[in-house]
Amino acid sequence: MKVKLKKIAINFSLMIFIFIILLVLGEIGANVMIKLGKGQRHQVMGEADNIVMTSLNKDLEFVFKPHYVDANGDTITNSFGFHELDWQPSELDRSKVILNLGDSIAFGANIKDINHVYGKILQMMLQQKFPDENYIVYNAGVGGYNIWQERAMLQELTGKIKYDMVLLGLCLNDSSPKMYVSDDVKGAVVNVTGELESAKEIFSRKFFNRSKLYVMFKEALKSMQRRYPKLFPSSMLWHNVLVNGEGWHSLKNTLLDMHESLSEKGIPFVIVIFPYAHQLQLDATDNIVQNDLLNFCQDHDVPCLDLFSFYKDNSQSIHWDQEGIHPDESGHRVAGESIFNYLIEQKLIPIKDTEEVRYE
Fold this sequence. Notes:
- The protein has twelve helices and nine strands.
- The chain has helices at 2-35, 89-93, 104-107, 118-129, 147-157, 205-208, 212-227, 238-241, 246-263, 288-299, 308-313, 329-345, and strands at 52-54, 62-64, 96-102, 135-139, 165-171, 180-181, 189-190, 269-274, 304-306.
- Helices cover 40% and strands 11% of the residues.
- By secondary structure, the protein is of the alpha/beta class.
- 39% of the residues are buried.
- Helix 1 packs across helix 7 (212-227).
- It folds into two domains: 1-38; 80-178 and 209-345, 3-Layer(aba) Sandwich (Rossmann fold), CATH 3.40.50.
- Strand 6 and strand 7 form a beta hairpin.
């Protein structure tokens, strides 16, 4: 009996040793692949091409460079690093300004002409509806941001840019950990978290996200789900799994905090949920994460528009990037028109006079 137990123990130890060796080799391989430009690198907009720079505000972590010019010679960002015009303070002061926060979709990834980004489509429609009032939808989206960086950006801009309403373009990965600037991928932003700050974080997602092997495996699984969502139970789809995570609960609390702090100033706060391409293959009831957020917003009287049904109705005309995250100009047009109609229906437009938040 003792000999048999000893043999079992040896075999088990050998299996553990081989497993650890395979993990180490896998991690080395994943690092090599990323350095060679293979696999998922979590870049902000394809090849980031050094548009990203580290921010002095650690809550933001990174921003886009001001007056950035791309390889075609086109100026992509303004003096704040946003995909937006350089408005004079006087122009903002005499206008009703909707501050449009968000990530790469709000920024307009893959949309060359700023006028074809959904915020500018909304601005054009508002100007046509109210010709006697100046409306500016100010694009402050930054690719790769999560909800906490979007809140930090709101705080950063308060007192620097005058606004009368805040519109948040919410992507379903906004509860993900913060991305960090990485010098070894040419200024791109990668989802590999910084230093562990407590013993508790060793047992958290932050610890696992330090492993490039884990991140690549997770992204490969997500990519498969995006291609074949109907092969998986809806509760196991990666975006729906978010509902059970600590980050998702924190996201909702952060949204509520933003809503309450803006309400104290009389400034409307509106959330717009952007679906992914693969979700359009599903029924609305299968998109658990949207339904959870919509119920939360309804319970707390937070205006919230889910673009799922509008995108699904126009799914034949909307084209997406390879991963099904960023819609094309047609998708932005649908978003702009849907947001416009929602703001009118909810009587959030015309914007009432508010406590002015102007330049310092």
